[in-house]
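Holo model, 5'-O-(acetylsulfamoyl)adenosine. Inputs:
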Amino acid sequence: MSEIESLQKDVPSFDPPEEFVAGSAVSGRAAYDELCQRAAADPEGFWAWQAERLHWFRKWDKVLKWTPPFAQWFVGGQTNVAYNCLDRHLTTSRKDKAAIIWEGEPGDQRVYTYAMLHLEVCRFANGLKKLGIGRGDRVGLYMPMVPEAAIAMLACARIGATHSVVFGGFSADALRERMNDAKAKAIITADGGYRKGKPFPLKAQVDASLEGSTTVESVIVLRRTNEAVDMVAGRDHDWDDLVAGVSDYCPAEPLDSEHPLFILYTSGSTGKPKGVLHTTGGYLTQASMTCRWVFDLKDTDTYWCTADVGWVTGHSYVVFGPLAVGATTVMYEGVPNYPDAGRFWDIVDRHRVTIFYTAPTAIRAFMKWGDEWPAKHKLDSLRLLGTVGEPINPEAWLWYHRMIGHERCPIVDTWWQTETGGIMISPLPGAVATKPGSATLPLPGIDAAVVDRDGNEVGADEGGLLVIRKPWPGMLRTLWGDDERYRSTYWSDIENTYFAGDGARRDADGYFWIMGRVDDVVNVSGHRLGTAEVESALVSHPAVVEAAVIGRPDDLTGQALVAFVTLGPGFESGPEFGQELCAHVTKEIGAIAKPAEIRFTDALPKTRSGKIMRRLLREIATSRTVKGDTTTLEDQAALDSLAKQYDDG
Ligand code: 7RM
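Output:
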């Protein structure tokens, strides 16, 4: 029996636009195929070639030391991430180029050139040193989306301190758990930040999180909102005071390629959060290669990735990747609908953004808010669009292509994970034809496959487990302090193979279609259905903007499909409408996928990075209450109203 059954029908495909074939780093399908062959024939030679683009204080002795499941890349080499992101550009024409263009939610703006950013990073690094922070120490970051978040990350990297960013929306408890696990010596925070038109506090949460802490000696506080905060004498330092009088230069430490760059906690569905560890040389090699190849980043580009630095996307594609390749990266502090639902498009037009990278959850929100918002803006500076974070249903892809890309911009649907460090499966915009809903093909050097439980590749259009069979430079090295959990979580399902939970199929062209998490697969009468395809069928109805599908126990069929559905503007929910949607799913992908029950809702429970939390919906549909961990939940009200709806019948 197959791992997951696929019911998907075919969709149109879009060839790379001529300008991209002519002008991008990987030009044409043949060039892509050749790179793949080259990488497959000599993976170490291929990755060494990519690593050579970075600055190394000392070249490596050995490209890869692989003692499964533990990898070391560019062994013996010494480099520094901040040096690569900053110093290297100062002797070039990029010295006075904008590195970061920042916009606060209230509308304040700042621009840092590479020279200015270098100065601020040096000064803050010297401030950290004054507090006795250096190589090997862990430093927590709990910041709003302000340039100082990037400055703090780069300052840590510069002196060899390992940072761990905790998303500013997390609670004091979540922060405490992560800082204790990392044994952080300091926390960098702010009084607060702006979100939805209001200041939100951060320092107060840090104070609460530190009750009983034995490792945190210093707290550095940036003034952002100027709301009052308590400062503990001896422990707490004002950012500005800390850097007052320090030297303008701080040398970048030559660090081993395997020096820990950052720990980023991801919460599994159960148990304590996992501290995903990324190191230096390999991570930056992949982050920068993917910026050049996937985003086609050029010196003329203004690039905007909307992710928060609290997520891996903010690490690899707001800060480290774009700066390593000398790009201009846009940072925005707030929500997409403040002061109105046109904010993102307003930013795109005013800053003449050329490359825009966001998540399906945002795209679906824009669909819900209506076409009039993007239609009010020119959006004519855009040349490339990207998406990440969840499967994007063809409907949303086509909307993005039409309403934002004006049918001119290729879309790169990038599949990767916190654990992979950088993009793994994605079209290269000048080389690989796109199909709406498919992440298309693995990048050269990435040995991705779809396999069964025994590790054998499954046939075309058969669902299976998405795995990576060879180590790659951006891969996580371990889970912080827990090698055994690292091994059992990622490397124990299939021998010497990385598997981190996604189901997928490949079509006859070898294209990858992510089918959702295998934990979310629903088994209806022995048919194992992935969530993505059923949700996509629902969303292909003109009235539906978002859907989440889960299984609840059923005496007859084992599990029955329950669909939670959000309608677009102007559509009324009701029992008849539920019938219509069921009929629609039957027509689109077949009767087996017809939901047994449809629930209408204004909002779905999501993580703060926008992923639908099906686990919570499962709990609601089965037991009507939610007892599981909700630390990562974005909107408690959405969940409460769903639970209530169930109680009301
Ligand atoms: C970058 C990021 C990882 C999980 C991953 C998938 C899902 C991410 C896509 C996707 C389909 C995509 N890191 N996912 N990108 N699913 N198509 N293009 O999101 O660690 O937070 O999440 O996200 O399930 O395993 S993450």
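The radius of gyration is 24 Å. The mean pLDDT is 95.
Archived with the compound record.
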